[in-house]
Amino acid sequence: MRELDMDEVRLRQLLDSFYKVTGLRVGIYDRMGSERMACPRRAQPFCDMVRCHARGLAACRECDARAVERACLSRQPQVYACHAGLSEAVVPIMQADECIAYLMLGQARSDAAGDVRAELKRRCAYVDDLDALERAYLRIPQYPAEYIGACALMLGACASYIRSNALVDELGESLPARFMALVRSAYTDELTLDEMARRLHVGRTTLCRQVTRQYGMGPHALLTQYRLESACHLLANSACPIGQVAARVGIADVNYFCKLFRREFALTPGQYRRQFGQLARS
Prior knowledge:
Elements: E1 3-6, H1 8-22, E2 26-30, E3 35-39, H2 45-51, H3 54-74, E4 78-81, E5 87-95, E6 98-108, H4 116-123, H5 130-138, H6 145-164, E7 168-171, H7 175-186, H8 193-200, H9 204-215, H10 219-237, H11 242-248, H12 254-265, H13 269-276, H14 278-281
Antiparallel strand pairs: 1-7, 2-3, 2-6, 4-5, 5-6
Helix pairs in contact: 1-6, 2-5, 4-5, 7-10
């Protein structure tokens, strides 16, 4: 996993200033979703009450992940409502067409009217102490949607400042290297271009451009090549039926697998096994 190199002193000053101006908690997170720094350090007690339950924690992570994905793909701030109904925003920090980290602000109550208790019971049914949850909720600052949107735009300016002043950098493997690591570890999965881009937290265009520039082949061609090379190993070293070999390398359609294999090696899978397999040599 790639590590973030952060200018912690200047970042702390920036986050502190943002909080003093807006009154909203702001944090910086790495691409895996780990909080690296925040002001104030503690989240809202309401959030702690929600996240101490497995269902609440999973729901928080899911809605945050969706927002981060949209922000990274669009390279724009994303304002959204979390599963518990609070307003939040996320802004990507880009480096060489990649989202290497992101800023997140929240939480705030919206100015929408309604039965707070009934809404909390509907959204957070897994919390037993509804009275305590409601008290914690009502202590969260309330702002109109326009204010949250304006703060998100300010946070976007902060992200640009962070990159232009190199307050955050990412060390470690490049995107093409991470792509190949993904192929090696997950080639048996159903990996569409969209899915590979999602797992790597980049856009499809960025993934294709950088991988092709590095290897002279696109992501799908490299994935197919790796699958076929893995199939060669299975054919030569096992007695698995051809259909099972295809499935084990991530190609569900055996006819399509045979077509790809013959086009790549000028042999059918069966011919390859007879010519190179250990069983043929024994």
